[in-house]
Predict the structure of UDP-N-acetylmuramoylalanine--D-glutamate ligase.
Amino acid sequence: MKRLVILGGGESGVGTALLGKEKGFDVFVSDKGKIKEKYKNVLIHHDIAWEELQHTEAKILNADVVMKSPGIPDKVPLVKQLVENDIPVISEIEFAVQFTTATIVGITGSNGKTTTASLAFHILKEELDVGLAGNIGDSFAKQVLEDDFKNYVLEISSFQLDGVVDFKPHIAVITNITPDHLDRYNYDFDAYIASKFRIAMNQTKDDYLIYDADDPVLVDWLEKHPVQSQLLPFSLVKTIENGACLEKENIKITIDNNQILMSARDLALEGKHNVKNAMAASTVAHLLKIRKQTIRESLENFQGVEHRLEHVLKINKVQYINDSKATNVNATYYALESMSAPTVWIVGGEDKGNSYEELYSFVNTKVKAVICLGVNNEKLLQNFSNMVDVIVETQSMNEAVKIAYKIAEAGDNVLLSPACASFDLFENYEDRGRQFKDAVRNL
């Protein structure tokens, strides 16, 4: 009996444990932190061995294969030890994919992957048997075990891609690549790019890679590191023969001379970046033979993703917008770009080595006040103090929202778009977004 050790007892860890047990592995789950009650109960119910608050090396180094949670860096001593002992350390995606014959759509990128994956799923579910997993929703492994869908849309982070060996999606999407998580890649941008492109490394000429042809990082990398798959670029400015582009306010998608035209005006989501997300998702749908009418209707009625430019409430003619999912500068760039009214901007958190220069033009033209919400706001103050009349520091969401309420006037926006990780003051970006929404509702 092969021994499967799982590091991390969260959604992906417990899903993998269930699938591993079903497939005849001797399973052991080890978490250095506390395992949530709901996950503990599942492990106990299925008679799966586990430990928390420690990693017992004797019970881990005897593994045949190790699945590690994407949150655990490769440079942790235990992980290094496993690698030195030639024990394969893989991600949930790599483990689960060997037990399904489904058609896989894999979506990665620095920004837009959640929206693109949710949107692709929203279209496909109208006509196909499909699951949504990866970095989003229920664990992929658990869905392979319980639902066995014929198709999956997987949102995949670079950390998950670092742990793949044979994973080969039939359709891969890379939305864009901007410097993010560089702390996990020794501040080497090329290493981060290479990590994202692992999504296409096993693809053949029968597979597809959909990517943003307006992103110089992607275009440059593909020129130097060609892939086997068929390329389907999308662009807002170029004319694309095979792929997606804009033609007079219309999104035009062409695959092997088969064309769809859709009005970009009718999209439920606002902003240029969402036109791109719609292009990517519709190209996926077109490849999987979804009817044009279904694609059009789905794009018009899609509600969007929580914590991503989410309109919370209008109070005294001021619109409050939750973009807590903007954990890097590029995501905040899109948010500020889409603001069409004077904006009170709540920003800050755990800085991942950010450079704020690309935001300067928007801050100068659109932002009337900056509210810094972080343990250390030094860098924000240095960058933006001389651009706006009002810049305030705060350490609590309630206070930030109250200050915004005082500053904002009828017709303004109050935008939470932090450009930083949330771990200095919040559990995660969801917690930060929910606290923002609660504070707004309590005004």
Remarks:
- The chain has three domains: 3-90, 94-301, 310-441.
- The domain at 3-90 is CATH 3.40.50.720 (Rossmann fold).
